């Protein structure tokens, strides 16, 4: 089977990296990041609406509570839905909520939309599809299940690459869980490991209708260009839609680009108009007393102190917003700023590595030790993937040492008995500050796959509020507390031995995991 994996780089040539245009940031505080709204909608909210979660159990319990209390919409995008008892409990919660909704009104207002990846969601006899078919059969008018199939897996390649390995070509990797006007952004999938002992990151944005509308529209847009799961476990495209692997690839990608960019641009226009309206009304007779009176009567929302920017990356469709923003943030981080960057799979793009090694900020990079890598102990070729990550890590560490950057760029390995590590994102501490004013949280891993192959989404959360900054700081500290600093002696340990064949094969396949 590994021979097919080796063919993949030859069959799908890599795309050259495009770096972001230079961008000068404004000088002061959180407002220096307002340039991001030139690319995506800016949602201003109160920091009291943001809650940072810390554990898989907390995440799972919140999902269940949110499903049970949803009245209008449940929108869930994930790589896949697992097939265990905990996942079945989530499906049961959905069924109960839909049933109650029907009983209450006779015809339900509640709509459930689920977006998963086709290849990962179809793996095995019992899979994500078989878990969800009972919902489709019982509530055909209220439930939609969309399965995204990458346009890059087609023709001979699709016929030759076996199950599991076909997931290397491209996936639906976005993770967003939305209930009425509450949105959970995470890197966690809907699977029992992510509910028990697989460490990830999770943030809840409460009572945020504009953000919820945006992600509902985004998932709808991707759903519209995805295969629709039917009640008999077949799939079909919406009427008039180009097929992702049977139709014309360029036509399909153009339609997908147009649908997604419509969502981004219309939300951006809406938010700009809202911002202009709010700005205008707050400057018309805005004495302190009149504002206080309006606030007391519920006429005005409190001034936002936190801004949410959705960052989308869908290179198959020519959308590279997340890549541009991430590269600009890394480029513009000044001397004495600190960047804490974490990924469960340390396999940075060359562009990100060059920026980390060539800029002035301090970096603390948290990655998985081999034992907490999700592939540790896997059968077959997949069992060698942790060793491949060790090899990539060693190469990067050697480059850091060669450039005498060990003080400025530090690698740390997450290690926790009985756990695996899947957290990804970034915290930015401006020079002279003990608290972060910006974090990136969502699905991207900062690797080649995230930039070039998969559909990804994260948010930049920018805040001036000290209490929220403290929450983000504690989240970062809690993750980094379970780590040890990497040094030359790390790679001399017996468990870091990398076989020759892994060293030879890694450069060929590193763009696929």
TrEMBL record:
Its EC number is 2.7.8.5. The keyword Signal applies. One of its GO terms (molecular function) is CDP-diacylglycerol-glycerol-3-phosphate 3-phosphatidyltransferase activity. Functions in the biosynthesis of the anionic phospholipids phosphatidylglycerol and cardiolipin. Residues 1-19 form the signal peptide. It comes from Uria aalge. It is found in: Mitochondrion. The keyword Lipid metabolism applies. This is CDP-diacylglycerol--glycerol-3-phosphate 3-phosphatidyltransferase. Residues 168-194 form the PLD phosphodiesterase domain. InterPro entries: PGS1, PLipase_D/transphosphatidylase. GO terms for cellular component: mitochondrion. Belongs to the CDP-alcohol phosphatidyltransferase class-II family. It catalyses: a CDP-1,2-diacyl-sn-glycerol + sn-glycerol 3-phosphate = a 1,2-diacyl-sn-glycero-3-phospho-(1'-sn-glycero-3'-phosphate) + CMP + H(+). Pathway: Phospholipid metabolism; phosphatidylglycerol biosynthesis; phosphatidylglycerol from CDP-diacylglycerol: step 1/2.
């Amino acid at each position: 089977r590994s021979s097919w994996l080796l063919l993949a780089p030859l069959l799908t040539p890599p795309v050259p990296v495009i770096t972001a245009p230079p961008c000068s940031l404004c000088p002061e505080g959180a407002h220096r990041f307002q340039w991001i709204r030139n690319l995506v909608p800016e949602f201003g909210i109160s920091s009291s609406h943001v809650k940072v979660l810390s554990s898989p159990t907390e995440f799972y319990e919140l999902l269940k509570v949110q499903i049970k209390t949803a009245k209008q919409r449940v929108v869930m995008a994930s790589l896949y839905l697992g097939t265990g008892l905990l996942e079945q409990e989530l499906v049961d919660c959905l069924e109960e909520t839909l049933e109650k909704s029907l009983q209450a009104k006779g015809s339900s207002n509640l709509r459930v939309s689920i977006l998963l990846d086709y290849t990962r969601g179809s793996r095995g006899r019992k899979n994500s599809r078989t878990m969800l078919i009972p919902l489709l059969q019982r509530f055909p008018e209220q439930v939609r299940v969309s399965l995204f199939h990458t346009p890059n897996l087609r023709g001979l390649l699709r016929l030759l690459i076996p199950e599991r390995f076909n997931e290397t070509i491209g996936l639906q990797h976005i993770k967003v869980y939305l209930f009425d006007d509450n949105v959970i952004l995470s890197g966690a999938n809907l699977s029992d490991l992510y509910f028990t002992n697989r460490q990830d990151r999770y943030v809840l944005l409460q009572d945020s209708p504009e953000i919820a509308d945006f992600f509902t529209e985004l998932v709808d847009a991707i759903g519209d260009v995805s295969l629709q799961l039917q009640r008999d476990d077949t799939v079909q495209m919406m009427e008039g839609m180009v097929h992702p692997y049977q139709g014309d690839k360029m036509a399909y990608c153009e339609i997908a680009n147009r649908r997604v960019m419509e969502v981004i641009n219309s939300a951006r226009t809406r938010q700009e108009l809202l911002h202009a309206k709010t700005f205008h009304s707050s400057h018309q007779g805005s004495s302190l007393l009149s504002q206080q009176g309006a606030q007391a009567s519920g006429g005005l929302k409190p001034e936002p102190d936190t801004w949410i920017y959705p960052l989308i990356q869908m290179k198959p469709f020519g959308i590279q917003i997340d890549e541009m923003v991430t590269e600009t943030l890394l480029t513009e981080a000044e001397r004495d700023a600190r960047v804490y960057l974490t990924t469960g799979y340390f396999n940075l793009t060359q562009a990100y590595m060059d920026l980390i090694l060539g800029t002035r900020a301090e970096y603390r990079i948290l990655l998985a030790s081999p034992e907490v890598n999700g592939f540790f102990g896997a059968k077959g070729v997949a069992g060698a993937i942790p060793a491949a990550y060790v090899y990539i890590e060693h190469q990067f560490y050697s480059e850091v040492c060669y450039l005498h950057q060990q003080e400025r760029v530090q690698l740390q390995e997450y290690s926790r008995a009985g756990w695996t590590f899947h957290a990804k994102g970034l915290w930015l501490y401006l020079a002279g500050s003990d608290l972060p004013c910006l974090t990136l949280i969502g699905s991207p891993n900062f690797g080649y796959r995230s930039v070039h192959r998969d559909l990804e989404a994260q948010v930049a959360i920018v805040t001036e509020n000290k209490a929220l900054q403290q929450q983000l700081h504690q989240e970062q500290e809690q993750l980094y507390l379970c780590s040890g600093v990497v040094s030359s002696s790390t790679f001399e340990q017996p468990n870091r031995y990398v076989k020759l064949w892994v060293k030879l094969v890694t450069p060929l396949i590193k763009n696929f995991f």
